[in-house]
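Good day; I would like, with your permission, to put a structural problem before you. A protein sequence and the structure tokens that stand for its backbone fold form the material at issue. The record follows directly beneath this note:
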Amino acid sequence: MSKYEAILILDDHVYEDGGDAFIDQIESTIQDLSGTITERKSLGRRQFARQMGKRSTGIYWDLIVELPPGKVADLKEKYRLDTSVLRLAVYTFDRPARLSLKPDRSDDEKIVAGTAADPATANI
């Protein structure tokens, strides 16, 4: 099984509940395709940069899915003609593990020590 990230944009006029009912439906479809959803995140209702048809807003969802590689095309094909799905994009999931955003304390100490202890820069 391979890991994929699926980005969905749903018609906000069709799904008043934020798309939760649709996500439950797509989850059962993915299970029928021998896959699982490992993470699902609603990104909320957003304004489009330009209109898609007559729509100017949509409900965004981000799904992390494990599927056999041959089943991705079947998933896209199932929702290709669904008018309530404005966009469905499936990408290979290659997000790196969480990185620590805190700098190494030894680097901070070196910077502070270098500026204060250096006599050439102390007079500037």
